[in-house]
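Take a protein:
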Amino acid sequence: MSIPIYVINFKDDIRKAKMINRFNNIGFQPNFVPPVTKEDSRLDIPEVNFDKRTWSIMLQHLDSIRHFYENTTDDHCIVCEDDILISKNFKSELPTILQNFKDLNLDILLLGYLFPHKLYNTYFSFKSTTKINYTYHNYPDDLWGCQMYLISRSYAKFLLDKYTIEFALSNLNDPPYNPDWIITKNGNRAIIHPLIAVEEGDTKTDHSGQNDFHRSCFLCNYNPDIHI
């Protein structure tokens, strides 16, 4: 089964090669849109104080979504980060996941996210159970992570139409112009459990608390028999 898959990568050839290899191993060919650099004309706003790095990440997510919306006729696409391990069963299970996505009338389904505990219904309420080894759950605004998400074509249009640079300038930091505050926080949304994608756990930040949290999420959710 084919579906457009986009990987967010900023000039990191090692990570890019790893993601191409991982997706190829499970039968997919990922797409990469050009990285958004600080020289991008959309970020040339000298009179406004904003985080160019975060905005550039948001714009690369939107550029990926725009490529899907304008250059394919598919009903769904997947966007993911460049440091994830992926379920080796994903391709065979994708048709059922897509059917469940449609049955639940979802706009976005998080296939990978940050949560350092085994997810049972004691944490988040069930949205549905399925005929395969996954459950779907509602999630609160303080669950984070754009490791891997599945969206519909209609939700792609909503994001592209609403979350423009003009929106960001009119709503500085409310919400932050950040995919984790916008893309995952709108529409009819759900998370899948167990995770399809698990972040490797090694981040590019020097913040020890963030590093420990990401590592905890990896140790909790990584299954060496499943994730490659």
Summary: The beta strands are 5-8, 76-81, 84-86, 108-114, 126-129, 135-137, 144-152, 189-193, 197-199. The chain has a mean pLDDT of 92. The chain has one domain: 5-221. The longest helix spans residues 52-71.
